[in-house]
Specification:
With 354 residues, the protein is of the alpha/beta class. It contains 17 helices and twelve strands.
Length: 354
């Protein structure tokens, strides 16, 4: 019987770094701890050496050298009874220009030439379904949630965290507001991660300028702050992000001001403060900084939310159920993938090895 083969998962980490901790390492390590037969492979990897026949293969951000090579990968996996899901957690428009050109030259082969996509939110899944109709949504969640810490919000010194990777343009729009705030509040200190251009425009003695950190050090630095700024201008690509930074801040008892894109649902629930533009983020943060009672109430609500709704252990059961359902339907999924390319030069001949 087709469903007699047990689920086994092979995870290929193509883009290692601190950004893959929440999306890849923590959830699949947690599944391993539950006893799921799951292996995580670091780049560089060889399919012949690491992928077992009849496996659910989840490949994080593959960037093959050509469309033909991606077709060969998919066909090789099909012949061994494997399903291939491309793990993709950002809109292609937000990738660096050289990667966008590379993907465009291949007609977005990593997204098209696979059985389905493994995405982080429904907005991203909807945006990518024109490329691949099967888009599986696995929300980001937080594995490490320390106890609520309100004591730091009683301190006179205020540390403000700005640690949003690749948001240089939106963060630059806060420069004038940050300069005024630093000039008017001698107890303010900024902690800026991986944005040397923003840091260079501000008084050096009032700014801690950190390079890109390991995930553990990033969270430790965040935990030392009381406020975090999450500017994000409105665009389709930004709407396809997840509020993972807000979740991390909530876990570390850090109040947040963000927007105008993405953070509206959390602001409505009183878990964050929404700004109408990146330029107004600083003004909203100053109001929150001057009202410790409101800030502590926000932090308390946000911490309760992330602990009871967004903790990784509360999501694992759904993940495992979904992976098992996909695995049981693998023959149907492969047949639909074949139909997508039937009659084209990317036809996928041969049967799926059951």
């Amino acid at each position: 019987m087709l469903t007699d083969r047990p689920l086994q998962i092979e995870v290929l980490v193509n883009s290692p770094g601190p950004h893959d901790q929440v999306r890849v390492r923590e959830p699949f390590a947690a599944l391993q701890a539950l006893g799921v037969d799951c292996q995580i492979h670091e780049r560089p990897f060889r399919f012949n050496n690491c992928i077992r026949p009849h496996s659910l293969v989840i490949w994080q951000r593959p960037l093959p050298e050509s469309q033909q090579r991606q077709w060969e990968h998919l066909q090789w996996l099909r012949k061994r009874g494997c399903l291939l899901l491309t793990e993709w957690d950002d809109h292609p428009d937000l990738f660096p220009s050289h990667l966008r050109r590379h993907l465009a030259s291949q007609d977005l082969a990593p997204l098209r030439l696979c059985h389905g996509l493994h995405t982080s939110c429904t907005s991203l899944a909807q945006a990518l379904r024109q490329l691949n109709p099967l888009a599986v949504v696995m929300e980001n969640a937080i594995a490490q949630i320390p106890e609520l810490n309100l004591a730091k919000h009683g301190q006179r010194r205020l540390r403000v965290f700005i640690g949003n990777q690749n948001r240089f343009t939106d963060q630059a729009r806060m420069t004038a507001g940050l300069q005024r705030w630093l000039a008017e509040d001698s107890h303010l200190e900024l902690v800026i991660v991986a944005d040397p251009q923003l840091a260079s425009r501000l008084p050096r003695e009032r700014v801690m300028d950190a390079r890109l950190l390991s995930y553990r050090h990033y969270r430790e630095l965040m935990a030392q702050c009381q406020l975090a700024l999450l500017p994000l201008s409105q665009s389709l690509g930004h709407s396809c992000k997840t509020p993972i930074k807000l979740m991390e801040c909530a876990a570390e008892s850090v109040a947040t001001v963000g927007g105008p894109e993405l953070y509206g649902p959390q602001a409505v629930r009183g878990l964050s403060v929404l700004a109408q533009s990146p330029e107004t983020v600083v003004n909203q943060a100053r109001k929150l900084a001057e009202d410790p009672a409101a800030r502590q109430a926000l932090v308390q609500r946000a911490h309760h939310w992330v602990k009871h709704e967004m903790a990784l252990d509360k999501h694992l059961g759904y993940r495992l159920w979904h992976y098992r359902c996909l695995w049981q339907k693998r023959q149907v999924i492969d047949r639909k993938t074949q139909q997508r390319f039937a009659g084209t030069r990317l036809d996928l001949p041969g049967p799926f090895a059951v």
